[in-house]
Design goal:
Layout (H helix, E strand, L loop, with lengths): L9 E4 L2 E4 L3 H13 L4 E6 L1 H9 L1 H8 L3 E4 L2 H9 L10 H15 L2 E6 L2 H14 L4 E6 L8 H10 L4 E5 L4 H13 L3 E4 L3 H5 L8 H5 L3 H8 L1 H27 L1
Parallel strand pairs: 3-4, 3-8, 5-6, 5-7, 7-8
Antiparallel strand pairs: 1-2
Organism: Actinoallomurus vinaceus
Keywords: Glycosyltransferase, Transferase
Protein name: UDP-N-acetyl-D-mannosamine transferase
Length: 253
């Protein structure tokens, strides 16, 4: 746990406590945890995940139990401001990942990548090696394993002596692995990065900065994969707006 790090400043947004930090502050907290050999788990939430957490109690417990809970979606940041619980900025999981990789390369920390398909994983590792020369990759494994294989996967990470573990898997698999098996991995920082491996591998294009600044990264992704993501985003965004409206009305009653 985050025993020796600074006092957490948090905001309550739609029944979830979120850490009020910038990207740089989140990176600094994780770096400090590694230096002090203290475990810190990271949870990231966007509008879709907040909606899903309302009906999936295991996912809610896994995310809310993390040592650092971050607003990965700009819509969550906007909601926090409307609710009078303003968060300083969006902390995208991939931005935290890139910041931590840079620090790991500079400080000689060992990293482990768990997730994606083998082909994607190999391309991602090549790109990471190009961006961060000297990065010590303790190990890597695809994210396709059963619940029964999870203990062995965690032991493999421990045997690799990883300081930081990045989980490139979908929800709720990554959150449940982080909660149940995170301690067994022995890693000091455990961060679920979702589809970030696909982005680094060139499988998916990340939205340009303008789209991200205006909270439209979800739309950019939907345009790339309209059949798969379009209906999902439409449904979850409507549900998220309904949750926000209900909370705003409750605050004025």
């Amino acid at each position: 746990m985050e025993r020796g790090t600074q006092q957490r400043e948090r905001r309550r947004v739609l029944e979830l406590w979120l850490d009020a930090v910038t990207v740089d502050q989140a990176v600094a907290r994780c770096v400090t945890a590694v230096e002090r050999r203290e475990r810190i788990t990271v949870g990231c939430v966007n509008a879709a995940k907040l909606v899903r957490m309302r009906s999936d109690r295991r996912l809610h417990a896994a995310v809310s139990g993390c040592d650092l809970v971050l607003a990965d979606g700009q819509s969550v940041v906007w909601a926090s401001r409307l609710l009078g619980q303003a968060l300083p900025e969006r902390v995208a999981g991939i931005d935290l990942l890139l910041g931590l990789l840079a620090e790991a390369a500079n400080q000689g920390r060992r990293v482990y990548f768990l997730g994606a398909r083998d082909a994607v994983l190999m391309r991602m590792l090549a790109e990471v090696g190009r961006r961060y020369p000297g990065l010590q990759v303790a190990g890597a494994r695809n994210g396709y394993f059963s619940a029964g294989e999870a203990p062995a996967v965690a032991e493999a990470v421990r045997d690799a002596r990883a300081d930081l573990l990045f989980l490139g898997m979908s929800s709720p698999k990554k959150e449940l692995f982080e909660k149940e098996w995170g301690p067994r991995t022995g890693a000091f920082v455990i961060h679920g990065v979702g589809g970030s491996f696909d982005v680094l591998a060139g499988e998916v294009r990340r939205a340009p900065v303008w789209w991200r600044r205006h909270g439209l990264e979800w739309l950019y992704r939907a345009i790339q994969e309209p059949m798969r993501l379009g209906p999902r985003y439409l449904t979850t965004n409507v549900q998220f707006l309904a949750l926000l409206a209900r909370e705003l009305l409750r605050g004025t009653s």
